[in-house]
Structure formats: C-alpha cells, structure tokens
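User: I'm putting together notes for a lab meeting next week and I want to include a structural view of one of the chains we've been expressing. I don't have a solved structure, so I'd like a prediction I can at least talk through. The sequence is below, exactly as it appears in our construct file.
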Amino acid sequence: MTVRKLCSILQRLLVYVFFALVIGGFFVDYPFAWWLLFAPLVLSWAAGIAAGRSASRELAVAPRAPVEVRAPVTGRWSALNSPADKIPSHGVHVYGQTYAIDIVAEDERHPRPGFTWLWPLARRPERYPAFGADLVAVADATVVRAEDGQRDHLSRSSLFGVLYLLLAEGELRGLAGARRVVGNHVILDLGDGTYAAYAHVQRGSLAVRPGERVRAGQTIGRCGNSGNSSEPHVHFQLMDGPDLDSARGVPFRWAGVGVPANGEEFTVAEESAPAA
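Assistant: Thanks for the context. Below is the predicted structure for the 276-residue chain, given as structure tokens.
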C-alpha cells in the first residue's frame, strides 16, 4: 500500500473519530478540555496535505506526446481549467486529472447563467445549456465502467455556493472517495494503454454498459451535474489505467480543435452517429 493511500485512509479515520467524540460528548463528560475534541480534525487536515503531496510525487508523469481523439461533444462550447494554461490543470494529479479539461456549452438562445454574489444562491441544472447535451465516444473503444445512479444537484454558482463547495461538500466528497468526486461517469478503454474518462454525467442517461463496444462518435450518455461540480459541464480526461485512484494523466488533442485554452470557444460539427 502506498504512502498516499495510507494517508487517505488515516484522514478518513480521523474525521470519523472527530464526529464520534462530538456525539459522545452529549452522553459523557470527557476528562480533557473541550477544544481537544478538534485535535482529530486538525490531524485529518494534516494527513490530507500529506496525501496530496505524496500524490504529486507518485502520480506526476514525464511529458509525452498527446493522444489525438475526437472531441467528446458537438456544438459550441468553451473551455475551463484547461491543460493548455496550466499542468496539472485542476491543481492536482490525483484521479488521473493531470491533463483534464472542463468545458461548458454556449448557446445564444439559452444563455448560460453567470456567477452571482448573493442571489440566487443556486439554480436548477436545467437552467444551463450544457445539461442534457450528448456525450459521444472519442474513439472506437470498450466500456470499462459506467455509473449513472447519483443525483444531479443544484448549481454552486453564487459566493455562498462556491464556499459551500470548497469548504464543505468538496471535502466530504473527497473523504468518500473518487466515485463521489467524479459523480456519474464513464470510462472507455481506447487501447494501447489509454483510457478516456467522462465525469459529472446526467443521472439515468447512460446508453452503454461495461463490456460493450462503442464506435467513435456514438452517443454514450448526457452531460449532467453530479459529483463535485459547480454547474453542468463536461469533465474529460485521458489516463493510463481504468482505476481513478491509481491512474496517471495522459495528454490529449481533439481532432480539428486541439486543446482549447481557458475561455476559448470552439465548435464541433455534428456528424452522423454510427450504429451501436
């Protein structure tokens, strides 16, 4: 077992100890000062930092040539958290995210709501043009994992919502493990040791199952707002393995698009979907 894994387990155990002590405090008098109840929480925070640093050493990869695949969507989109601007693009190497990218749909007829400081605190996912957009296979592949049972939650696009996501929800999802962070997701085996992952998929939208073969351009599901997500968007990445806990990121290029930079808009033409 790696140091990163041990630190992650210790982090979870210390959080459980903290909550157990808080609950126990309603029934017994502890022979120590009340502020010592927070010691497990502080130690958990330290273990989390150690796990993150260990992950940076274990999962960082030497530069390699990007793998070219087709884009996972069609229509007009813009990029956020792009590896064209920063590596690792999401600030961490864990969960194979070194070269991950987030994209949001742009539609003049259905404008994407912007950030608000106070009100509304949150919006329904249907308010965003990305919600329900088709996700397509980026290459001929085999489905390795497919999960779509987690709910699509409200947006976290106000100041309160962002703080809640960063300080509470995000931390709890991290403790719960990779599948709660990425939400509903699909992982495709593209061959040659390369895997494509799609995160935050819409609940109940998957059109594929593990073991099934798919063709490039085939619809596999729809964009949602499950997992650790501030608004409906597509989180896409390539990895060197199917296990999010141990995979290392692989750089990509989208045919005809490249790697869009933060804020850059791009359009992917509609194509005839191949037969399943």
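A couple of points you could mention at the meeting. The two ends are 40 Å apart (CA to CA). Helices lie at 3-24, 39-59, 159-176, 178-182.

User: Perfect, that's what I needed.
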